[in-house]
Design goal:
37% of the residues lie in helices and 19% in strands. It contains 15 helices and 10 strands. Strands 1, 2, 3, 4, 5, 6, 7, 8, 9 and 10 form a 10-stranded mixed sheet that branches. The radius of gyration is 25 Å and the shape is globular.
Length: 440
């Protein structure tokens, strides 16, 4: 796929990554990225080469060497993408919202680097294990105007976790978050993660990071440190008396529950919420935290969800809604595997394994960024309703629609050099043809 026939909107995005590579490697990067987007079949290394229609131009070893031997950093690639996301999709001065989670990329073969047996809740059978690579991923949460009911997760950084050979998943997650904070400077970062990442390593994050996570039921909470009495000798107290367990706190009359209107997972409803400020010394030391207990409005006692957050300025309803946005990373993993083909490569060596998944996730996020700037969601949604009039529940475009629009743009650009025939113009939406054909 010659780069001279690419749309300007795509070449401008790819040009942002030129500083991550040498000149020959940047050309290979552009070819493989275009092949990743244009390939409707298996997204192997050779599949990307075929998707870019370069199989007769480049030897396949050039594509394999890009992942196994070329000099480039997957972290630098993700940080450039982070700058692009902050410039185009995050309002000026707004905090950058990050989400951390891990996912499995199934593999086959004993010689695959970093592969091991992991618990897979989606696996069939009784034991639910899978031979796979486990990746800790950091994504940016953004709100797109054409998807108003939920936020979208754009993965930017990923690290391979090997049990017994690398630090734990929480250590890798905090390492990636610190990398993002060092790159952003003093800009505020709001981190959301599930209960598996609620550990003492969160206390080592920079002060610009606020953490909102699920609270363990057996967490040892303490009251705030009492004020020091005048004339008292000795070191002042760093924490107050220990609080009862959460199950007891939820049933106490002194724990006030109030009804709040919250929007979770695209649906608004009432929820009974109680919030109090305390300390969680095992994780955040002397830093005060908000503990939020959530239950059904009709429940007499107990709680359904317990959250903890270091953001003392946020309201309880905002914290509940913020934690619900964490689910978008699960949707991003599903779309990356089943729609974009991330994880279908057959590489086995260390550097290839460590680079292919971050490369694929960056390509998926970059495709969504391109659609947010240059896509036509209204036209794509109308065209989908014409093709499937019985599908009445579709209200917004999906990631599959975004990838299809990008693939159509790449295909349509191949005819830019010559005169477009009328039957070719009829294949594409009118808004897209106007951008491609000067005579339109």
């Amino acid at each position: 796929m010659p780069t001279r026939s690419l749309p300007r909107s795509i070449t401008d995005l790819l040009e942002c990554f030129r500083g991550c590579f040498t000149t020959p490697t940047f050309t290979t990067f552009c070819g493989l990225a275009l092949g990743f987007w244009a390939q409707p079949g298996l997204h192997t290394v050779c599949g990307m080469l075929c998707g870019a229609r370069l199989q007769q131009v480049w030897h396949h070893a050039r594509a394999h060497r890009f992942f196994s031997a070329a000099r480039w950093s997957a972290d630098q690639l993700g940080l450039v993408l982070l700058d692009l996301i902050c410039a185009l999709l995050v309002p000026d001065g707004a905090p950058v919202r990050l989400v951390v989670d891990d996912t499995l990329m199934r593999r086959s073969g004993r010689k695959v680097f970093g592969a091991a047996w992991h618990h897979d809740p989606l696996a069939p059978g009784r034991h639910r294990v899978a031979w796979a690579n486990n990746w800790v991923v950091v994504g940016v949460l953004v709100w797109l105007p054409f998807i108003p009911h939920r936020c979208v997760c754009l993965p930017i950084l990923a690290r391979l976790w090997q049990p017994g050979h690398t630090p734990g998943r929480l250590d890798l997650a905090t390492e990636l978050v610190k990398l993002v904070c060092a790159h952003l400077g003093d800009r505020r970062v709001d981190l959301v993660c599930d209960g598996a990442y609620a550990g003492k390593q969160l206390g080592d994050l920079p002060g610009q990071v606020t953490v909102t996570t699920r609270l363990r039921v057996d967490a040892r909470l303490c009251r705030l440190a009492p004020p020091r009495r005048p004339g008292t000798r000795g070191r002042p107290r760093t924490k107050g008396d220990r609080l009862p367990e959460l199950t007891l706190l939820a049933g106490m009359v002194t724990t006030p529950f109030a009804l709040h209107q919250v929007t979770r997972y695209g649906h608004g409803a009432l929820a009974a919420i109680a919030c109090f400020t305390c300390l969680w010394p095992a994780v955040f030391g002397t830093r005060p935290v908000h503990v939020v207990l959530v239950r059904s409005p009709n429940a007499p006692d107990g709680f359904d969800l317990a959250l903890v957050s270091t953001d003392l300025a946020a309201t309880p309803a905002e914290l509940v809604e913020r934690y619900s946005t964490r689910w978008s990373v699960e949707t991003a993993f599903l779309d990356s595997r089943h729609l974009a083909g991330v994880g279908q490569a057959r590489t086995r060596t260390q550097r290839s394994v460590e680079r292919l998944i971050p490369f694929g996730l960056v390509c998926v996020s970059l495709a969504i960024v391109w659609y947010a700037r240059h896509g036509h969601p209204a036209a794509d949604l109308a065209a989908h309703r014409v093709r499937a009039p019985w599908y009445r529940t579709k209200r917004t475009v999906s990631v599959a629609d975004m990838l299809a629009a990008l693939r159509r743009a790449l295909l349509a650009a191949q005819y830019r050099q010559g005169q477009l025939d009328q039957h070719i113009l009829d294949l594409f939406p009118a808004a897209l043809v106007t951008d491609l054909d000067p005579a339109a």
